[in-house]
Design brief:
By secondary structure, the protein is α/β, with parallel strands linked by helices. Helices cover about 45% and strands about 25% of the residues. It has one domain (about 1-115): Rossmann fold.
Length: about 120
């Protein structure tokens, strides 16, 4: 299954991320990453260590300007079949919540883990 793994920028514990990902009962064939935050980089390292293909979706910030992040989310969700969101209970991250809405609109299976 092609999966986006998204999370709050302050979540940076690879062991915790590994435990959460492995706690889901499906085979991940590809990770779709934004490649922007430390969280994204950790997920990319996880993919490498676990021999899972990883695609980083970049966006042309000069061309898209203020809507670049939205264009990136739309592109990512069109490539994926599911999304795992690791949320920090203490913080209401607008970027993560927006990604949930885009994922719903593009009919992804949504899995949310609060820590």
């Amino acid at each position: 299954m092609k999966v986006i793994i998204a999370g709050h920028k302050d979540i940076n514990d690879i062991k915790l991320i590994d435990k959460i990902i492995k706690g889901f009962d499906f085979n991940i064939s590809k990770i779709i990453s934004a490649g922007l935050t430390d969280f994204d980089k950790i997920v990319e390292i996880w993919a490498l260590k676990n021999k899972v293909s990883c695609e980083v979706v970049s966006v042309n910030w000069d061309m898209h300007g203020k809507i670049a992040r939205y264009v990136q989310k739309e592109t990512m969700t069109k490539l994926a079949e599911a999304i795992i969101i690791i949320k920090n209970k203490k913080d209401n991250d607008k970027e993560v919540n927006n990604l949930i809405n885009v994922s719903k609109r593009n009919n992804l299976k949504i899995f949310i883990k609060e820590i």
